[in-house]
Specification:
heterodimer, A: mainly alpha, MetI-like fold, 2 domains, 12 helices, about 0% strand, B: alpha/beta, five-stranded mixed beta sheet, 14 helices, 12 strands, membrane (chain A)
Chain lengths: ~300, ~325
């Protein structure tokens, strides 16, 4: 006779419950992958209809992007150029500011100051991007117009600067976490050798946290790439092949927003162009993520 | 602990009760859906505001999808009224016919399509139609980038252009009036369906030029300067004012503005009341927002058409719209 098992023992029910929970959690994890696959397949499918009409060569080499006009041209380079310019300006602002902020908060600030500044910095990321866009258009641009005479009302420079401001929290928060993960022993060893706080931060902590900091930069770059509203509002929506940040231009994302919000009919080639542009954006972000993955692996330090 | 649970239960009940009380009110509200031209939008918005104030149980939503976008939604049955800054095109009439949607065309105001420049622009006080064509024709893309190329007497200043995009009725009308064929335009300008963005762009750039409906100029007089147009037939330059449109001399850029109401939607009392309100208040409100009101008889005739269900458009395929005057619009009869 088995004293622990009877017909009404909870054992089988518990086993079933475990299985159910296990499956639910597995489905949740799979759903993320499924959604990603769905998005990619839709982009690829619709882009295929686009590329049946427009040759890949014209798409990659033509210098004008005017799909909504009577004589359409489909060269994606103006959009890609504008995206890269705006992202670079954003990173030029966010990387130094964010890294130095993280360094100060992590290594130098007394704990009372840190408790105040850290949440305040993260509040920057809670401002909606459309508010940032109008901030760029109505505050930053007039200010810049006084420094740079002749600056057009819509330009890539103010959009880039404000994008930089909006991604500073990503850089600073992740960099600070990376720096905090560096064990105290290494720091103390450095202090014991007579190094100042600045020397410790520069030569010991920063290199040790490098993989996490690089991950922060890559994340910031991905966010800057995907920024839509700030560029749509502040940089104008005129596709323009130029590397000059004082000119107005349209990025990949701003073009997608312009067409998606407008009233282009389904199935037309102008409609399919947004999927082709979306695919380009996806590939750029994918390349960036793979790059980030390899760089993190290379600089990783295990403690 | 006990009071905390009670409080939680009470607040949840209050929240649910509030939602339950409001939902029937939301569900019952009669809605009139208006969309269409960004040029007609100021009038539609003003009419909608006053109508909702007078009829508290009716909601009027006004969208700005552009003339083309408005017609697309209208011929799919998604909206009741669409504003248009040009008459319906052949393709749009066909689309409505295919979908079984019949409409009544109501003229509501006249517009002097205004070409505007920066307030400090003192050299381009008047432009000829030929000069406008030089600036805006498709061949000017990348080529005409300086004011001096338009007229050697103008200063050596970069020319930045703003205007509506290719889905806009204003774009269709301007290109037809200046270039001779709708849709013919250079492509390297800041194209946006939102005329406020065009106003903002021109106001910030000394070498800027753009075009939009006159209501947007009237609302921004301090920031812009309007350009007088020398008509194609020659003569003196004419400013985009109400008097000149009524006299019929602001050519070729004076144009009628319409609303189209679907016959099916008119069976709902709130839509019919809204359309009648539009016509009775249209003169006053179009003048208020900055357009040229039609003469009083025009609104009476239009109200008669609404009452008698006179379906169709005055501008069947192929008939030119450019150069049509207020009297011509009043004289024409709508046909299916």
């Amino acid at each position: 006779m088995n004293p622990t098992r009877s017909r009404f023992s909870p054992q089988p029910a518990r086993h079933v419950k475990e299985r159910v929970v296990h499956s639910l959690l597995f489905l949740s994890a799979m759903s993320a992958i499924a959604i990603t696959l769905a998005v990619v397949s839709i982009l690829v499918l619709e882009s295929m209809s686009f590329f049946r009409e427009v040759s890949l060569r014209e798409f990659l080499t033509d210098t004008q992007w005017t799909p909504l006009f009577a004589d359409p041209r489909y060269g994606v380079m103006p959009l890609v150029g504008a995206t890269l310019v705006v992202t670079s300006i954003g990173l030029l602002v966010a990387v130094p500011l964010g890294t130095l902020a993280a360094l100060y908060l992590g290594e130098f600030a007394p704990s009372r100051v840190r408790e105040f500044f850290k949440p305040t910095l993260e509040m920057l990321s809670s401002v909606p991007s459309v508010v940032y866009g109008y901030f760029a258009l109505l505050l930053v641009t007039p200010l810049l117009q006084q420094i740079i005479p002749g600056l057009p009302g819509f330009n890539m420079l103010s959009a880039g600067l404000v994008i930089g401001v909006s991604i500073v929290p990503f850089v600073s928060s992740m960099s600070e976490d990376a720096m905090r993960a560096v064990p105290m022993d290494i720091r103390e060893g450095s202090y014991a050798m007579g190094a100042t706080r600045l020397q410790t931060a520069r030569y010991v902590v920063f290199p040790a946290a490098l993989s996490g900091i690089v991950a922060a930069y890559i994340l910031a770059m991905s966010v800057a790439l995907g920024q839509t509203m700030i560029v749509a509002i502040a940089a104008g929506q005129q596709a323009n092949l130029t590397l000059d940040p004082t000119q107005p231009a349209a990025t990949l994302t701003a073009y997608i927003a312009q067409v998606a919000i407008g009233d282009v009919a389904h199935g037309t080639i102008a409609y399919q162009s947004i999927f082709a542009v979306g695919l380009v954006l996806l590939l750029m972000t994918l390349v960036l993520n793979i790059l980030g993955h390899f760089m993190r692996r290379r600089y990783r330090e295990s403690y | 602990m006990q009071s905390k649970r009670v409080f939680l239960a009470l607040s949840t009940a209050a929240l649910l009760g509030g939602v339950a009380a409001l939902t029937p009110a939301w569900a019952q509200t009669a809605t009139v859906r208006v969309d269409g031209s960004s040029t007609v939008f100021p009038i539609s918005e003003a009419v909608a505001e006053e109508f909702q104030r007078a009829n508290r149980n009716v909601r009027v939503t006004v969208g700005v999808s552009g003339t083309g976008g408005g017609f697309a939604r209208f011929c799919r049955g998604e909206i009741d009224v669409t504003g248009a800054s040009r008459p319906a095109r052949a393709t749009e009439i066909e689309a409505c016919r295919a979908a079984g949607i019949r409409f009544i065309e109501l003229p509501v105001a006249f517009d002097a399509l205004t070409v505007a420049v920066h307030r400090d622009n003192t050299w381009a006080r008047q432009l000829t139609v030929a000069q406008l064509r030089t600036i805006w024709e498709p061949g000017a893309t990348g080529r005409i980038t300086n004011w001096r190329q338009v007229d050697p007497a103008f200063p050596d200043l970069a020319l930045t252009l703003f205007g509506p995009g290719s889905a806009s009725g204003t774009f269709d009308y301007f290109t037809e009036a200046i270039m001779g064929r709708s849709g013919q335009s250079r492509t390297d300008y800041m194209a946006t369906e939102d005329d406020n963005v065009t106003v903002m762009g021109i106001a910030r750039d000394r070498g800027a030029l753009g075009y939009f409906g006159m209501a947007y100029y009237e609302a921004n007089r301090e920031r812009l300067r309007s350009v007088s147009i020398v008509p194609a037939t020659g003569g003196a330059a004419v400013a985009p004012t109400m008097e000149n449109v009524i006299a019929g001399i602001y050519q070729p850029l004076a144009r009628p503005l319409f609303i189209y109401v679907s016959e099916r939607s008119l069976q709902r009392p709130e839509v019919r009341q809204f359309a009648e309100f539009f016509l009775t208040q249209g003169a006053r409100l179009s003048r208020e927002v900055g357009f040229v009101p039609l003469p009083a008889e025009a609104y009476t005739v239009a109200a008669g058409h609404l009452r008698d269900n006179r379906l169709g458009t005055r501008f069947a395929t192929g008939e030119p719209v450019v150069g049509v005057r207020i009297q011509d619009v009043m004289r024409r009869e709508p046909r299916l």
